[in-house]
Write a structure and sequence with these properties.
By secondary structure, this protein is an all-alpha fold. The protein is about 50% helix and about 0% strand. The longest helix is centred in the middle third of the chain and has 21 residues, at about 20-40. The protein is elongated and about 70 Å long. The two termini are about 50 Å apart. The model has no long low-confidence stretch (mean pLDDT about 75).
Length: about 80
Amino acid sequence: MKEKWNELKVTLTETTEMSKREFVLSLMVCLLGGIVFGMLFSPRKTNVFGSHNGNNCGNTRLNEEDEGEIADWDEIEKQEL
């Protein structure tokens, strides 16, 4: 293991040249990879576009049996999925 570490240290001390195109492409790959990583490992998996502010699309009206209850948006989102 120590031999491999020494080999790695030797390769890290060498200087290499990189063109501007390679530099920009490597930055873009890191940026896009970070975005994808963030989307995959984010704690919230459902996306809701809109604010559920009563636009009469059918998801804000209460049923006759639920007139006294307040709608729970988490349950509504689960039913939509």
